[in-house]
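Handout, page 2. Input:
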Amino acid sequence: MAKPQLPMKPTGWFQVAWSDQVAVGAVHAMKYFGEEMVAWRSESGEVTVMDAYCEHLGAHLGFGGHVVGDTIQCPFHGWQWNSAGHNVCIPYQDRPNRGRRIRTYPVTERNEAIHIWHDVEGREPFFEAPDVFASFNDGSSAADYYPQQRLFRESLELHPQYVLENGVDFAHFKFVHQTPIVPVFTRHDFAAPISYVDFTITFEGSDQQSIDEVRSGVEAINGGLGIAVTKSWGMIDNRTISAATPVDESTSDVRFMVYIGRTPGKDSPRAAERAAAFGDEVIRQFTQDIHIWSHQRYSDPPALATAEYEGFTA
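Output:
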């Protein structure tokens, strides 16, 4: 029996690929929001995401289509389409078909990922996708971290809202991750499309510890429902990116990325191995969350405990 679902057409930025999946000249087929799409990178390096079917006779551009300069060429009759979705060449006619256009999507690339803007009302983007470095305004960059580590899970029965709600769910750490962490929330601000969740960390049995004495915590910036970035401080320096993108009316793809910080003066092969091991552990804990979400039924209204009410209802 199908699980009850929230509507799977949210507005915002959603990851559809990693940048290295769409090299110069590459065409990448995919399906999101119930639509067949292609991503392709022109010879000048620009990424375009558009609906997959040629407006001529409906050939799928992801199966045999190829990049020619700054256009994608249909494998069926060679019609060429530019990054705005306009036909610019019919090879056996002296002028293009100016009356037909393939739908394209606003695209942004950051943190080695390709995101598209989705809005059923067709509006232009009204907020930016968060950047795991620049958005925290602390001068950090990818050069300060070891290479990105990744997780990708396809077509899971979950809604992106599950991932966002997890950010305010203090009680799951003990039962899902078997850790004694007790988050103490210092901020959860969902007043705008870009939202924020900050918490400091205490541990079970340390009830007398004041927040001022805590020396570790997490800052999270959420870009709508599609992408969340986190910065951890006071512990092993790490940044994470979680991205959930609806595929159709019941499933989503989930991607998770981790960066582990380099220590100046201690950037040895052994340090890199330890960093990779810690990154693997962060990813392992995220898979524990995914296991719950992919079998979860959305409860509306939920039976919240008093202590949970403020965070979840925000």
